[in-house]
Design brief:
- This protein is mainly beta and about 625 residues long.
- The protein contains six helices and 34 strands.
- The strands form five sheets. The chain has a 22-stranded antiparallel beta barrel. The chain has a six-stranded mixed β-sheet with strand order 1-2-7-8-5-6. Strands 3-4 form a two-stranded antiparallel ribbon.
- A hairpin with a 2-residue loop joins strand 16 and strand 17.
């Protein structure tokens, strides 16, 4: 055993013995499946609790999201650090059409870099909210397919918590958190370190994150101050041809490509009561990133963002209101052998949404948002653009009885062009606009749940990469596509078979196609026609429990294959399990992914010029052993 692994084992041992020596009394663990709620806009909201995250053995946010209905993840690096999340049928442009929130604040980037869904250690997250469907009225730009909100835990119990783990591909990670209370202030600090070689050669990943927060609560106002700093280094093994995969699927096609960066954010949230049932909430979010690396050639990259959002919420008689403004300032820089890009973006919005209880059982939601984007782009040429958008939403919700409800809604959506998209092509890109229609029913009684929905998303001027090669754009370009459509249906079921055994299942079907143009009737690449997940949670006794799951991903065409000339990649099913043991304040979990060693791909790309496919192989069978403890 090398010194580094020995150190990790020593840390695990120390944490366990310290926790056991405290012998604290803790309540029995009650594991619940995701809870369903509704937003003020009438959309359903899936809530994944802390207990469920622990039961499944997830070690990152990306792991948690894999079990959610209507979600598909794309990972181009194999490290889990560059994961694009797709809600309701988006392919290579998924990260620009799914909005990631951190405590209600957008984490969007001015460039095409996907927001890091693993921006926080899983241990610091209280629960995750998933809102499927367009939510542009409430959240603005990019809330097209849906919204994922990561809610952090700022009122943790007074204790010290230590968690460490070891796993396949020399994976080691350790998380330590100290939480305390002084008068009316809850404060905590944490450090997390994660390092792994990953499945393929030249694919090492290392991350160190420092976090601190303070939550001050008074009758006149609440204030949260949250800060995070992290350093990250990722090696990129690149894509392989079919011949290379057959020869050695773990090999890399280079030994030079990498990216290292540091990023940080400061979030201040103030909630002030105005009068009975009314409140003013103000968010200020400042973030920055500096990085450099090699992707065929050297490059440097940086971004700065400032976000401000004051919002009034409240209830009066039969009315519930959310209204406010948001302003975002972004500066982005990219320097490489291809030149220098500087992008300055200013984005603002004004929104209001009201929910009206027409009767005790019937409610309506109506709202609107106006938004404006002003950009100044400096590359080899300079350009300025002003884009505008106006969207509305209308929904209805009827509670048939205590357990059964139905809903229907129509919601507009929009997305503004990003920095790199503005540099490609001869003409400025138009804002992407769309309409989403959905309806469904929800049955929830005791521990039983059944939810079914059907939806259609129609988009105009969808912004995506067009691989068509022309003399003006020999490598393809980002374009406004011909109209596209996504028609889908989702089903989620949870049923307690026995007091010790709970079953859950989710299925999502989607048909994402081009509605017109040269690719009319073709399937949109990288969108699986079916996603399904099933799980069984069995509690042996007060200490032991087992969660076993199967996850199916259907057929999809490779990225860039808009013409569907290549064959659709075959579907696959993965089987995983997590064995969990808990004694007093000590918890141990052993998680195995891909039990039957299935060979599949994280991502596939079709190269138009040579009519060939390139593959990003996914890991074989792998495991993770985690031990955690808490003590006063």
């Amino acid at each position: 055993m090398n010194k580094r692994n020995a150190l990790y084992c020593l840390i695990i041992y120390m944490g366990v013995t310290n926790a056991a020596s405290q012998n604290p009394r803790i309540p029995d663990v009650i594991v619940k499946r995701p809870v369903r709620a509704t937003t003020i806009s009438g959309a359903t909201k899936q809530i994944i609790t802390r207990q469920m995250m622990s039961a499944t053995g997830a070690t990152s946010v990306a792991d948690v999201l894999k079990t959610s209905v209507a979600l598909q993840l794309h990972d181009t690096s194999g490290s889990g650090a560059d994961v694009a999340v797709s809600l309701r049928g988006f392919g290579a442009n998924a990260s620009s059409n799914t909005l990631i929130l951190l405590d209600g604040v957008p984490t969007t980037n001015p460039d095409l870099m996907a927001p890091d869904v693993n921006v926080l250690p899983l241990e610091s997250i209280r629960h995750i909210e998933i809102m499927s469907g367009s939510e542009s009225v409430l959240y603005g730009d990019q809330a097209v397919g849906g919204v994922i909100n990561l809610i952090t835990d700022h009122q943790a119990e007074k204790n010290i918590r230590l968690q460490c783990g070891v796993g396949s591909y020399r994976a080691r990670d350790c998380h330590a958190r100290w939480a305390d209370v002084y008068r009316s202030v809850n404060y905590q600090a944490s450090v997390t370190h994660h390092v792994t070689d990953n499945y393929r050669e030249h694919n090492e990943y290392e991350n160190t994150t420092l976090m601190g927060s303070g939550f001050y609560q008074q009758p006149s106002y609440d204030m949260l101050i949250d800060y995070k700093f992290s350093q990250e280094r990722t090696q990129y093994p690149g894509a392989l041809t079919g011949v290379q995969v057959d020869s050695d699927r773990r090999q890399a096609n280079n030994d030079t490509d990498y990216f290292k960066n540091n990023n940080q954010y400061l979030h201040v949230n103030v909630k002030k009561p105005l009068r009975e049932a009314w409140r003013l909430t103000t968010d200020v979010f400042v973030s920055g990133m500096n990085g450099n690396g090699v992707l065929s050639s050297a490059f440097g990259q940086s971004r700065r963002s400032v976000f401000l959002k004051p919002m009034v919420t409240g209830k009066a008689d039969r009315y519930q209101l959310e209204s406010g403004i948001d302003v975002r300032l972004d500066d982005y820089h990219l320097g490489s052998s291809f030149g220098v890009t500087n992008n300055h973006q200013r984005l603002g919005g004004l929104f209001s949404l009201v929910k009206i209880a027409a009767t005790p059982d019937l409610s309506f939601s109506i709202g609107a948002r106006g938004a404006l984007q002003a950009t100044q782009l400096n590359t080899d040429v300079s350009a300025e653009a002003v884009n505008r958008a106006f969207v509305t939403t209308l929904g209805a919700d009827y509670q048939i009885n205590n357990d059964f409800s139905v809903y229907a809604r129509r919601a507009g959506s929009f997305r503004f062009p990003k920095a790199e998209e503005s540099t490609s092509g001869r003409q400025p890109l138009r804002p992407q606009r769309g309409d989403s229609y959905e309806g469904g029913l929800v049955y929830q009684a005791d521990d039983q749940l059944l939810e079914w929905s059907i939806y259609q998303i129609n988009l105009r001027d969808e912004i995506a990469f067009d691989p068509l090669q022309t003399p003006e754009n020999p490598f393809g370009s980002n374009e406004n596509l011909a109209p596209t459509k996504r028609l889908g249906s989702s089903l989620a079921v949870k049923y307690p078979i026995h007091k010790k055994l709970i079953a859950d299942a989710t299925v999502n079907l989607v048909n994402a196609i081009f509605r017109s143009g040269v690719n009319s009737g073709n399937h949109i690449p990288l969108v699986a026609d079916v996603m399904a997940h099933g799980g069984l949670l069995y509690r042996f006794d007060a200490h032991w429990q087992l969660y076993a799951e199967a996850a199916l991903t259907g057929r999809e065409f490779a990225a860039n294959d808009n013409a569907n000339v290549g064959s659709a990649n075959g579907g696959f099913t993965l089987y995983n399990f997590n064995l969990r043991y808990r004694y007093q304040a000590i918890t141990a979990a052993f998680h195995v992914n891909n039990i039957f060693n299935k060979h599949y791909y994280l991502y596939t790309v079709y190269q138009v010029g040579v009519a060939n496919e390139y593959f990003y192989p996914a890991p074989d069978r792998n495991f993770m052993l985690t031990v955690s403890g808490s003590f006063d």
